[in-house]
Amino acid sequence: MAGKLDKVMTRRDFLNQVGKVGGAVAVYGAMDSLGLLGNSMFASASSFNAPKKSELALANKVGKKVIILGAGIAGMASAYELSKAGYDCHILEARERTGGRNWTVRGGTEETEINGVKQTAKFDNGQYMNAGPARIPQHHVTIDYCRELGVELEAFTNINEAGYYFHENVGPLSNTKIRKREIKADTRGYVAELLTKAANQSALDENMTAQDIERLTAFLTRDGSLNSNKKYTGTSYRGYTELPGAGLKPGTIGQPYTFSQILESGMMNNFSSEYSFDQQMMMFQPVGGMDSIPKALEAKLPGKITFSAEVQEIRQTAEGVRIVYNFKGQVKEMTGDYCICTIPLSVLKKIPADFSPEMINAMKNINYATTGKIGIQFKSRFWETEDRILGGMTTTNMDINQIWYPSYGYLSQKGVVIGYYNFGQASVDIGNLSIADRQKHALAQGAKIHKQYLSEFENSFSVAWHKIKYNEGGWVSYSASDRQNYYPILNQPQGRIYLAGEHLSYLTAWMAGAFESARVAVSQIHERTLKESGTAAKVS
Amino acid sequence: MAGKLDKVMTRRDFLNQVGKVGGAVAVYGAMDSLGLLGNSMFASASSFNAPKKSELALANKVGKKVIILGAGIAGMASAYELSKAGYDCHILEARERTGGRNWTVRGGTEETEINGVKQTAKFDNGQYMNAGPARIPQHHVTIDYCRELGVELEAFTNINEAGYYFHENVGPLSNTKIRKREIKADTRGYVAELLTKAANQSALDENMTAQDIERLTAFLTRDGSLNSNKKYTGTSYRGYTELPGAGLKPGTIGQPYTFSQILESGMMNNFSSEYSFDQQMMMFQPVGGMDSIPKALEAKLPGKITFSAEVQEIRQTAEGVRIVYNFKGQVKEMTGDYCICTIPLSVLKKIPADFSPEMINAMKNINYATTGKIGIQFKSRFWETEDRILGGMTTTNMDINQIWYPSYGYLSQKGVVIGYYNFGQASVDIGNLSIADRQKHALAQGAKIHKQYLSEFENSFSVAWHKIKYNEGGWVSYSASDRQNYYPILNQPQGRIYLAGEHLSYLTAWMAGAFESARVAVSQIHERTLKESGTAAKVS
Predict the structure, then answer these.
(1) What is the largest CA-CA distance in chain B?
(2) Cβ-Cβ contacts under 8 Å, A253 against chain B
(3) How high is the pLDDT of residue B59?
(4) Is any Cβ of chain B less than 8 angstroms from the Cβ of A238?
(5) Residue A363, preceding bond cis, omega within 30 degrees?
(6) Beta carbons of A327 and A308 less than 8 angstroms apart
(7) What is the largest distance, in Å, between two alpha-carbon atoms of chain A?
């Protein structure tokens, strides 16, 4: 029956997976490497008996060195997990910060795009934008890492019925900001009315029993808020034109739009984006900025990260790997037993590497999504005080796509709004504007919805991910045929080199993809190490 | 057109309302009394010129004394607003705390029910339950007071797709916890499939143009996640039986339930509760407990509240009011120019008062809703670690009605779950059990959904509002005829006695009703004072 619990790759599942491929010893070793022994939260659910501590020490003495390329989520999660098991890990990171695409922009943040244009964020103290990942679904393993690392979470307001739809050039509802709740209630009402009518005309009989139809009609009447004639004529679900109050103020319900108006507007086609498994409420964000996650990982890896290390060559040697990198103008190299490479394919494909022709061909053929964001600081939260919108989004059919209202600092004076978060051609077009013109465009588009945009504006910071050095794109974008033809190749190690990152997962664009892929790479390396060192034989 | 902004009774609206009934002077006076002069947030939108400060002082010198009965939201909001305008306010409060039904239970909280049974909460430090109001919609004036009073807000997780439906005795889906997202996705799918079929059979033609039908069909295909044959056969919207992961794990989508199973279960009839204007996301709660609001109001009223003052008589005098009360065994009285009485009708109707026969009859005939809540502290957050539910609710057809997972302290060790929040007969039946039996019942019912209920249980605190002294009910419950026959009578002052509270509003059961009614009472008293003192003539 489909009602079983959704399964997430919890740490327990991870162990079970390792158990399947590597036998009991791999499980024990991986278990220790993940710090799960003695973890009461999971221990009770373990399906095997933990070995004595003395046996596990064997697994910890292999002492292999793993060079990890990139101090983003995948790289640091790999180092974090391997370090627990006694591996000698070192991360080479091109930037002077950790996090990769998990990047929180605050006042003073500087970025020079690949064409040399530099920005410095002027946000006030306490204000920030998450330029990369910005929300976490409940079922992602990212939540488990936040728990383990002590990263505090708060709700991310992914869905707010008070937000607006604003569509241009779509008939009578064009250029009008309309509360999401209005379009939703009206659409549900008309759908319910139409289906109820069809049911009463026996148009559904071949599918359903009389009892089912009766239950369906009762449900539709409630769900669509139909009147006693089974007609939709409006409902308080859509909100009021005058709110109910105290004394003799019962409130006034607004007139619904016609279904024809709504269908022409296309606004109802926005609903399903909220149904997506990874976009449903509740969603979460770390308190204070998404980079709380990489900062927490970084704190677990003292002395294990070399910053400003630009990888120039990735080589295989007889029994290991050799990485050539540029450290502030000096060419250096590092050798190790394994490499976990988390560099995005958009960048990796340009780095000389001892990869198979199939791998090189695969990387060449895989595309990265373009995406852009602008954070705009306003001197007052007019969306809260005037529009009564606390968090959430306004959805448009313009090139800015969405406006995000901040999910933190409610009721305070200032706030940073995400003025656009767009994809595809719109993100390329806006991203290719000058910094000043991006801002100007975001303000002009937003001012169609919020007149206060111009008077309350203070400053902005924009990110065009296709122009960000060391990323050159938002996230991997696999077609169905890419998944078939190229993805399996990326999942095969190149000698002792393993790839990790969101691009090595079915959770592309999510931090969870990076975490999960790190866990897979770590498991595979650990299993191989145990096998090759003969530790498996000793313990089993 | 219905797309206009929803209007809330902001402070500006409040001024406009006063302006209508009391003329310009009343507006100026009320404006000052509300502290709005010089408030830049609202000043720019004012449609009149503010008078000079020296003129306003006249309004502040009336010095009338207002006795307020009850230090709940309505009482303290009344005192807060009147005090700003220079009124001499004093609150008589029967309890030793403020807040009334806005009551946050923490470790050490004591309560003796009207039958003499005493409870002391044993929650750990940092754990709490909001026994009364627990969530705030964005459009309520409560939000404005939080802003003005500096009460910090965080999201209240009213809707979480990861929560369960659990229905007993409803056919094949009985006694099975099913994720809300599954029932929602399946229902949307089947509704879309049926309506698409009806549309293709021309069953809708008389209502819609061919273009509308084409747009409707395209919408339904997307909304219901129909396949290329316009059939619903499942969707990732409902979640996965095996989650997508890294490497070669694309995830497995579960089989949908049949529509007949769902219709028999009745679970789809729960959807519309989430559409209610006051229940839609986003919703909010004060950080640290709902009583942050009364505490913030109380801090604005130093020395103006007498606790342990049980009102015994409410009398009218020639030019004012006289209140007789019992203060720790001593009978005392207080006289004043006006009285604002916020005592719930369920209690007020038993207090001797100089009220008209119509008023006495009205109070006698108005009912109060019964409701109960239990907070259960568990030693671990199994709902987060095992069920992957961070906040939100599970909805049942059992007498416990709902289970609420806490909207604070995510990822921490312990948590307080609301084990039931019920109404009507169920709340009477469970509320009439002994404290121990309420707990036993809540645990037994909850354990049907969460097996960890019994092993992880630590302690509980239950509230049966019909047995709480000074309340004797949850909130006023007006029938349509009550609104017609009795409600207008309550809105007329009895001499110089004005009623306030959620029962004097169309926002019953909400704190906003208490706030709004306080503003109405304050406006009416202020207008009358200005008229009677002749101040109006002087200034105008």
Answers:
(1) 86
(2) none
(3) 52
(4) yes
(5) no
(6) yes
(7) 86
CA closest to B182 among chain A residues? A3
How far is it, in rounded angstroms, from Cα B284 to Cα B287? 9
Per the CB < 8 A criterion, the answer to whether A462 and A119 are in contact is yes
Q: Where residue A202 falls among pLDDT bands split at 50, 70, 90?
A: confident
Helices assigned H by DSSP within B256-375? 259-265, 292-299, 345-348, 357-365
Number of Cα atoms under 13 Å in the Cβ half of residue A178: 33
Mean pLDDT across A418-446? 98
What's the confidence (pLDDT) of residue A59? 52
The conformation of residue B255, written as its DSSP 8-state character, comes to P
User: Going by DSSP bridges, is the β-strand pair B330-336/A110-112 parallel, antiparallel, or unpaired?
Assistant: unpaired
Predicted structure pTM score:
0.91
Q: Can you give the pLDDT at residue B61?
A: 56
Here the tokens at position B447 are 């354990």
What's the N-to-C CA distance of chain A in angstroms? 37
List chain B residues with pLDDT less than 70.
Answer: 1-62, 535-540
Which pairs from B268-272 meet CB under 8 Å and 24+ separation? B268/A219, B268/A223, B268/B183, B268/B184, B268/B187, B269/A218, B269/A219, B269/A222, B270/B165, B270/B180, B270/B395, B271/A223, B271/B184, B271/B187, B272/A222, B272/A223, B272/A225, B272/A237
Query: Looking at CA atoms only, how far is residue B310 from chain A in angstroms?
Result: 26
Residues B490/B362, Cβ–Cβ less than 8 Å: yes
DSSP assignment of A372-396 equals: EEEEEEESS-HHHHTS---SEEEEE
Distance of CA A531 to the CA centre of its chain: 35
A516 touches chain B (CB under 8 A): yes
Q: Do A41 and B203 touch (CB under 8 A)?
A: no
Q: How far apart are CA B190 and CA B336, in angstroms?
A: 65
Distance separating alpha carbons of residues A1 and A21, to the nearest angstrom = 28
A259 close to A37: Cβ distance less than 8 angstroms: no
- Please choose, from the candidates B91, B90, B34, B23, the residue with its C-alpha nearest in 3D space to the C-alpha of residue B60: B34
Confidence of residue A19 (pLDDT cuts 50, 70, 90): very low
The interface residues of chain B toward chain A in range 150-179, judged by CB-CB distance below 8 A, are: 151-155, 157, 159-162, 173, 176-179
Q: Which of residues 75-134 of B touch A (CB under 8 A)?
A: none
Of B181, B220, B506, the CB nearest to A251: B506
Bridging pattern class, strands A392-396 and A164-166: parallel
* Composition of chain B by helix, strand, coil, percent to 5: 40, 20, 40
- DSSP of B409-456: STTSS-EEEEEEEEEHHHHHHHHTS-HHHHHHHHHHHHHTT-THHHHH
Give the tokens for residue A310.
């630009």
The per-residue pLDDT for range A323-351, each reduced to its tens digit, is 999 999 999 999 999 999 999 999 999 99
- Helices A53-60 and A11-33 cross at an angle (nearest 10°) of 80
Whats the size of chain B, residue-wise?
A: 540
pLDDT at position A535: 57
- Residues B530 and B540: their CA atoms lie apart, in Å, by 11
Tokens of B523: 């406006």
Query: B88 vs chain A: nearest CA distance in angstroms?
Result: 24
pLDDT at A281 over 60: yes
Token digits for A272? 């399903």
Average pLDDT over residues A445-470: 98
Please name every residue paired with A323 in a beta bridge, in sequence order, or none if there are none. Answer: A314, A334
Q: Each residue of B38-85: pLDDT tens digit?
A: 322 222 222 223 333 333 344 555 689 999 999 999 999 999 999 998
Task: Say if residue A305's pLDDT is above 50.
Answer: yes
pLDDT digit string, tens, across residues B247-295: 999 999 999 999 999 999 999 999 999 999 999 999 999 999 999 999 9
Minimal-distance CA residue of chain A relative to B150? A411
Q: Which residues pair with B402 in a beta bridge?
A: B395
